[in-house]
Amino acid sequence: MLTRREKIVMSLIFKKCSGKNKCLISCAEIINSLYPNEYSEKEISEILNCLVLENYISLIVTEKDEKETYCITLKEKGESFQRDNKNSKKALFKKIITTILFACLSFAVGLILKAIF
């Protein structure tokens, strides 16, 4: 399961790799596309390594003009990231609706029992 920060970075990578399975992106480009004051280069590197360990991407780090550039290839889990994200949101929505319906049902049964007794 991905953390909130990993999901944010993964969605950015997914957008950059749209239509292809590969993309070249620099650390500065990732930071500027997200929240510049919230992420550091070290944190981005750690997040990308976590995504590699989770088997979402494969990562090759190169230096171009003394700046790190990442060659990112989406793996099978990475390609299905957006679909999995939508499915988890649907499942959460269904759970919330079910909980609300059961709360209303419990309230109604409570009122009926209170009126009887």
- Our measurement of the CA-to-CA distance between the termini, rounded to an integer number of angstroms, reads 49 Å
Q: Give the C-alpha Rg.
A: 22 Å
What is the correct CATH architecture of the largest domain?
Orthogonal Bundle
- How many domains? The number is 2
User: How many individual β-strands?
Assistant: 3
Low-confidence stretches: none
Helix vs. strand class: alpha+beta
- The average pLDDT is 91
| Separate helix tally | 5
Description:
This protein has 117 residues and is α+β, with helices and mostly antiparallel strands. The chain has two domains: 1-78, Winged helix-like DNA-binding domain superfamily/Winged helix DNA-binding domain (Arc Repressor Mutant, subunit A), CATH 1.10.10.10; 80-117. Helices cover 62% and strands 18% of the residues. It contains five helices and three strands. The protein has helices at 4-16, 27-33, 41-53, 76-79, 81-116; strands at 22-26, 57-64, 67-74. Strands 1-3-2 form a three-stranded antiparallel beta sheet. A hairpin with a 2-residue loop joins β2 (57-64) and β3 (67-74). α1 packs across α3 (41-53). The longest helix is centred in the last third of the chain and has 36 residues, at 81-116. The protein is elongated, with a radius of gyration of 22 Å. The mean pLDDT is 91.
Defining traits:
117 residues, alpha+beta, Arc Repressor Mutant, subunit A, 2 domains, 62% helix
Secondary-structure map:
Layout: H1 4-16, E1 22-26, H2 27-33, H3 41-53, E2 57-64, E3 67-74, H4 76-79, H5 81-116
In short:
The protein has five helices and three strands, in the order H-E-H-H-E-E-H-H. With about 120 residues, the chain is of the alpha+beta class.
